[in-house]
Amino acid sequence: MIEVVGASENLESEVDKDAMNIFLETLNLLGGPRKLFEYRNLTWLPSLMEAAYVVVYSKKYMKTANEIASILGISTATVKNILNADESKIEEMLSHFEKKSEAKTHVAGALAKLAYKKVVEKGPVVERKDAALA
To answer: Fewer CB within 10 Å, N or C, the chain?
Structure first.
């Protein structure tokens, strides 16, 4: 028996794979999963995954903040905070990760955006040519 998978199921599967790639790259940016244990930042994991999905839907699939919020069941404000996160503040924080950072930005969002750039540079996520930068 051959099962025909619908377009939305294919899209969801592709988004899941892309988000996982971004999530794993955020862990690499942080120094690996062990660093989360060492710095007692395990509470970051759900935020990192959420941010990975937001960034993938925005950058690769050109979804608006309202569409992403609806798809993920989160507020539009959360989506906008993730997309507006300042990556430069996080890059600075990562260089001094041992110290507590008081960065006034959405940490997971900025990490996911940095990770997205790194994954795209490596090649597994193909960004559409008409993709707008957030």
So the answer is: N
